[in-house]
Amino acid sequence: MAMTQAQTHSLWREIISFGMPLIVGLLVATVLRIVAYQPFTIPSSSMSPGLLTGDYILVSKFAYGWSAASLPFGSPEGTERLMASTSERGDVVVFRLPRDPSQVWIKRVIGLPGDTVQMRDGQLLINGSKVPHTALGPAFDLDEPTRPVEAFEEQLGGGRAYITYDGGPNLAGDNTAPIHVPAGHYLMMGDNRDNSLDGRWGPETGVGFLPASHIVGRAERIAWSWKPGASLVKPWTWLNLRGDRLMKPIK
């Protein structure tokens, strides 16, 4: 039996009353994701031990202002930042890979525009001065428990300290020529120094120099962290969390 006009109107009112809050909620979430904070999942161990595979992090979009890189599918080529502010040495930054902006990577800011950066026997030098680092002794890579490493506390000044991993002497990336960072760019490195393709390598294989326009935002906090084997597509693993990492600040 066909519905009357009144029944049709009533059905549409119910659909709208049910769907409108959902639509508004999605719009608000999208705006917040673009303007304020965007979540990302850590896919590799290049920033271990500070960030582990499975960490779900919150990235501040307003920390450095906005560019097309801030948009979910934006292309940063040739764009300027709105209300731009500069990244600081030691910031952990999410960015679009210069050679392929569809890829989103995460590394630490080591070299600022105008800096000269060099690795010498595994020791980081900035503008000719050795960056203080304190040996913490042998450890195992938290993401690769069978891989032995040496842990160091590296100090960039201003109270910024974090732990790096060294996989051994004379490995690729342990010794570089002096690298001069051009204006408007940054040099990025992973904390897991011997397991990171970064600014020590050219843009063909690593990051090269990172243009400021390619920065998505600053990584600020680990919202939660899944243990190995957990996945969004496996609901029965959603509560398989690393409890000690919930809402942990990123150093």
From TrEMBL:
<feature type="domain" description="Peptidase S26">
    <location>
        <begin position="18"/>
        <end position="224"/>
    </location>
</feature>
<dbReference type="InterPro" id="IPR000223">
    <property type="entry name" value="Pept_S26A_signal_pept_1"/>
</dbReference>
<comment type="similarity">
    <text>Belongs to the peptidase S26 family.</text>
</comment>
<keyword id="KW-1133">Transmembrane helix</keyword>
<dbReference type="InterPro" id="IPR019533">
    <property type="entry name" value="Peptidase_S26"/>
</dbReference>
<protein>
    <recommendedName>
        <fullName>Signal peptidase I</fullName>
        <ecNumber>3.4.21.89</ecNumber>
    </recommendedName>
</protein>
<keyword id="KW-0645">Protease</keyword>
<dbReference type="InterPro" id="IPR019757">
    <property type="entry name" value="Pept_S26A_signal_pept_1_Lys-AS"/>
</dbReference>
<keyword id="KW-0378">Hydrolase</keyword>
<keyword id="KW-0812">Transmembrane</keyword>
<dbReference type="Pfam" id="PF10502">
    <property type="entry name" value="Peptidase_S26"/>
</dbReference>
<dbReference type="InterPro" id="IPR019758">
    <property type="entry name" value="Pept_S26A_signal_pept_1_CS"/>
</dbReference>
<dbReference type="InterPro" id="IPR036286">
    <property type="entry name" value="LexA/Signal_pep-like_sf"/>
</dbReference>
<keyword id="KW-0472">Membrane</keyword>
<feature type="transmembrane region" description="Helical">
    <location>
        <begin position="15"/>
        <end position="36"/>
    </location>
</feature>
